[in-house]
Design brief:
By secondary structure, this protein is α+β, with helices and mostly antiparallel strands. The chain has three domains: 19-88 and 227-304, Sulfite Reductase Hemoprotein, domain 2; 98-211, no CATH class; 308-397, Sulfite Reductase Hemoprotein, domain 1 (2-Layer Sandwich), CATH 3.30.413.10. It is 27% helix and 24% strand. It contains ten helices and 20 strands. The strands form four sheets. Strands 1-2-5-4-13 form a five-stranded antiparallel β-sheet. Strands 3-14-15-12-11 form a five-stranded antiparallel β-sheet. Helix 9 links the parallel strand 16 (310-312) and strand 17 (342-345). Helix 1 packs antiparallel against helix 7 (251-263) and helix 3 runs parallel beside helix 4 (173-188). The mean pLDDT is 92. The protein binds iron/sulfur cluster. Iron/sulfur cluster is lined by residues 22, 313-315, 319, 321-322, 345-347, 349-351. The site of iron/sulfur cluster has 13 residues, from loops.
């Protein structure tokens, strides 16, 4: 009998309850606060000792350890806690990796996120495990691209609320936490598999706006910038955003980066939405030096790098469900992209990118399925033998 608790259907993998995947057990964590460099180096060690040596940053900016086994997964939560890494105990609310440090932000989202997290804690057992709330303070790193049951965004002249991506209305800052918690209560009342799309459809956006006394929605501005690159901070320092190819980094490489960051004077590191790591506390010249070193270690240091537009899951041979060697395929297809998004998925599950991509290649028993403007679960426009993929795409994408 396994010593690992079985993950509930629809639940998210966590440290105490990892999820079975094709390449072993996967554990996910969302640190409560930025990590110091020793803490991330410690996580890299845990990934190497207990997993397959790969650490991931997801599209939502969460950390994942892969390839854990029934023998190594128990005790992982305690090992992470021993590094001094705290994970949210209440309802998890997402904020950007530069929250509170971005001089171009409209407000610091952390106090509001904390109030929502604390206030919604009793609702956690009654909500769908994937229920999500984001608080976007504006500025360079925006969270508008993330799917969320409720999004609170800094808008022109107020805070804008959206339900499942549909603008609901504007709310005063002092009422924002109470309104979000009341909306979550409304969601919980519909049962623990309900999501906000159902509430919005059943109750209607306009009636909800009137009931909660909200003003018409306010514009929330642009989508922000890619986290990869240099970002000025309120204290005069700089943050360096580094992209991870396919959202993955090997533990040994991460340990080298932490050493280099320490020598460059860095103090903190934070996983960022968009499969990136944000190194914080750097002087501008040191950040440039570190950027060059990180490029040498294989990190993506330019937001325009075409690999930023490629999503690929673990694939063959890492995942038993995979029909494609996703990473090898990506390397051959990147030169053909010409600015388009490409998602290569070893099977229809689509672990790497739940959203649509300009082109999706999905591994099927019959060959490689090609889906245009869709996801791996969509019916492919056609299926081609894997050996003919490059030649086919060369013609199609020309
Ligand atoms: S999408 Fe990729 S990683 Fe996920 S189960 Fe399928 S092959 Fe495995």
């Amino acid at each position: 009998m396994s010593a690992i608790p079985t993950m509930r259907r629809g639940a998210c993998p966590s440290l105490p309850e990892p999820m079975q995947t094709g390449d072993g057990l996967l554990a996910r964590l969302q640190p409560l606060a930025p990590l110091n460099l020793d803490q991330l180096a410690g996580l890299a060690l845990l990934a190497a000792d207990r997993g397959n040596g790969i650490l991931e940053v997801t599209a939502r900016g969460k950390l994942q350890l892969r390839g854990l086994t029934p023998a190594t997964a128990p005790g992982l939560a305690e090992a992470v806690a021993a590094l001094g890494i705290a994970v949210p105990q209440g309802f998890p609310v997402e904020v950007s990796a530069l929250a509170g440090q971005d001089p171009s932000a409209r407000f610091d989202p952390r106090p509001l996120a904390r109030s929502i997290s604390d206030g919604a804690a009793p609702l956690v057992p009654h909500l769908a495990p994937k229920t999500s709330v984001v608080v976007d303070g504006g500025g360079r790193l925006r969270l508008g691209g993330l799917k969320a049951d409720i999004a609170v965004s800094a808008g022109e002249g107020g805070l804008s609320l959206a339900l499942a991506g549909v603008p609901l209305g504007a709310v005063e800052a002092e009422r924002a936490a109470a309104v979000v918690i009341a909306l979550l209560q409304r969601l919980a009342a519909r049962g623990m598999s309900a999501r906000m799309t159902e509430v919005a459809a059943a109750e209607g956006i306009a009636p909800l706006r009137a009931e909660f006394g909200l003003a018409p929605p306010v514009p929330v501005g642009d989508a922000g910038v890619d986290p990869v690159g240099l970002h000025p901070l309120t204290d005069g320092g700089v943050a360096l955003g580094l992209g991870l190819e396919f959202g993955q980094v090997r533990a040994a490489v991460l340990a080298k980066l932490m050493d280099a960051a320490r020598r460059a004077g860095g103090t903190e590191v934070e996983p960022a939405a968009g499969r990136a790591l944000m190194l914080i506390g750097l002087a501008p010249e040191a950040a440039e030096t570190l950027r060059a070193m990180a490029a040498g270690l294989g990190f993506l240091t330019d937001a325009n790098d075409p690999r930023r537009r490629v999503f690929a899951c673990a694939g063959r041979p890492a995942c038993a469900s995979a029909r494609l060697d996703t990473h090898a395929l990506a390397a051959t297809l990147v030169p053909l992209l010409d600015g388009r998004d490409l998602h290569i998925s070893g099977c229809p599950k689509g672990c790497a990118h739940p959203a649509k991509a300009a082109l999706t290649i999905v591994g099927l028993d019959e060959g490689a399925g090609l889906v245009v403007e869709g996801t791996p679960r969509d019916v492919p426009a056609r299926i081609v033998p894997v050996a003919q993929l490059r030649e086919t795409l060369q013609k199609d994408l020309a």
